[in-house]
Amino acid sequence: MKKKSTSQSAFLNVRVLIGLFIFLAFLLALGVFCNASGQVNSDTKFAHWNPLVWLEQKVTASDGTANSYFGSAAALNGSTALIGADGDNSFQGAAYLFTKSNGSWSEGQKLTASDGLPGDEFGYRVVLADNTLLVGAFTATVGGVVSQGAAYVFTQSDGTWSESQKLTASDGALFDNFGASVALDGSTLVVGANGATVGGNAAQGAVYVFTESNGTWTQTQKLTANDGAAYDNFGLSVALKGSTILVGSPRAAIGANAGQGALYVFTESNGTWSQTQKLTASDGATNDSFGESVALDGSTALIGAYNATINGHTWQGAAYIFTESNGTWSQMQKLTASDGTAGANFGNAVALDGSTALIGADASTVEGNTYQGKAYLFTESGGNWSQSDTFIASDGAVDDYFGAALAWDGVTALISTPHPTIGGNTWQGAAYFYEQSATPTP
Known about the structure:
442 residues; mainly beta; 29 strands; globular
């Protein structure tokens, strides 16, 4: 078992041990470790978090196969989780719903596109709200146009999710990759198309805004960077909250620094979205890929730069905290892993909830296992963010890429690892739920 914090009590007294045994018996009674037939349906383990602990539960797809890439994307909303598997069925793709009951996560519906085809990669990106979810299929062929891409809206009624609409860009074209990123808030959703050609610039990228009325989603605007250039990959990441859209452009050149990356802020007024600011890292350098990932919560943004060089360590990665005041966003802090190493890719995925942030480093080496992966929790106090914990899969192995996708709601962490071999199936994939418990580690 991998420790998840640096502090630990010197001993457990008798009262604590008794409490622990009671807690374990309670979990067994609820069926956390076994399903109704007595078969193990997930792995539940303990991990330290000071002074609490994290309860780890590993889930896999019940019908998983080799090359499914279960864990390609992840989303959380209360007691419901959505996990993409974009390699399922010869990369046609799928997404799986999980629900939490009595402390345990169980697989529910498997979602697929009604018109899905091999190679669509449905499930590459996902987003989940109360009664609506959105799944990107960024390499879908649309009307004979290869990799134009699509996104699918599903709605929930009486506990059942059904496909309600397929979204495509009104001006979609070859290799646009519409669906490479998705975000949803209320009656607005955005879809990134990082491969879109704009004004003759190949792969400059674009983002499409859709609004919902009476259950139907309609494209209302196409967003592009006012200074975009070829191969910027604008739209590779997106975040949406209220009247703010953040769009990552991780291959954008800044000055003479090719691939340094940028992030664009769009705000809405009277139904129209306009670019209001371009953000870059104060210490940005060539090939940092600032904007590879982005998360937004209120007036705080978290932006990943997974290729950043840190203290001479190439591709160690970093993430930046920006905050908004009176309509202007400013860099507040640069975050790095306390144990970061070259090639770790810290910042490949990010999630943000209030004063806590979860950051993936999916290429991290763990005890000699290259590309096993890690994820880091940061907490804010008095305006300062500091690393508070590290997540490592209890059964991690070489090439798992734990942290490739993640979600965080302030209580539960969902961290996916799309490459593990499961029951002999290479690259079937898995995901891990971590939840806090006041019970000490056994």
